[in-house]
What we know:
The protein has helices at residues 6-10, 32-54, 183-198, 217-224, 280-289, 317-330, 347-353, 371-386, and strands at 15-19, 23-27, 113-115, 144-152, 158-164, 169-174, 207-212, 262-265, 268-271, 296-302, 306-309, 334-335, 358-363. β1 and β2 form a beta hairpin. By secondary structure, it is α/β, with parallel strands linked by helices. α6 (317-330) crosses α8 (371-386). It is globular, with a radius of gyration of 47 Å.
Amino acid sequence: MTTDNPKLNKLGTFFVAEQQSGTVWRPAAAPVKVLRFAMLFQGVLLLILSACATAPQPALPTLAPTAVPPAIATVATNPSASALPPPTLTVPATAVPPTETPVINLENVAPTAVPTAISMATDTAVPSPSPETSSAFPTTAVSSSSLSVIGNSVQGRPILNYQFGNGLTQVIFVGGIHGGYEWNTILLAYEIIDHYTTNPQLIPSDLTVHIIPSANPDGQYLVTNQSERFLPSDVAADTVPGRFNANNVDLNRNWDCQWQPTAVWRDVTVSGGPRPFSEPESIVLRDFILPKDPAIVVFWHSAANGVFAAGCPDTHAPSLALANVYGQAANYPVYERFTSYEITGDAGDWLATQNIPSISVELQNHQSLDLSQNLNGVQATLDYLAGP
Length: 388
């Protein structure tokens, strides 16, 4: 049934009117053309909606922090800080030629103290730096070191003393009493000086350590052409003349223990000087040692390969005890006294008469320093004398 409404008829009779109890409009069956159109429209709509649902969506911004680039991952910067200018030199830069052995010229320079504000967390191995210990050693470490001239040789060369620490107990090491003939004992002394300059914390705080590297600088100069530090390549082929001082006296036959003017070295007669302590080098050592009343005096020699206790004429028991300490740590044989030939006017033997313990450490030969052995021996002696 069609309606008389012209607007509805133009749409293709979507509604028919049926009057039951008034005029009521209801939908009529849609024509086939209209249904097809509706289905086509619905299909297109579904395709559009499906495409929208599967399209990738842009990532939403979040407040999570982003990764820091590797180049700046460990550096925190201040955004308000400005770039610092490059450092500038305060003095002109000059090329310094390398030297193989440092030499200190003391002829015109007064000795000065070399401060060392160095300490470490332990008295054994150096720990890895930490914020608490990277620049501080314990208060038990040696507080200072210094270099001084304690006297002069016959020809006026300085006899040097390197001092470490300022404790009450004095310890003295002497190299080169036989000058250039036993040149390796001089280099050993300098190596040990370098060791404790680098590691001052290894010296117990209640000790003062003195190292005299060359007690016979004239004899050293005769063989090496150097008054202080030298290289093994500086050593002349004939070292025997360097055993004696400039007066041709064997300084280790010039002390007042069974002294003789004519002494023996191996199967050779040598001069013990016109009287005990006739030589300036002997006087310098004696006058340096006695006021200090040291706990021990160690003389480095070569090349009998052993540690010998002092005694005049009998073995000095305190010297033998310390010979055992040094010898066991350094892995040297220990002897109560030297018996290969008669020794007169020996420095260590005379010190025993003054109740000052003394030992002679003989290196294995005339070339090697036996450095690791002697570092062990020196350190064991220092630790022993420091006590608990």
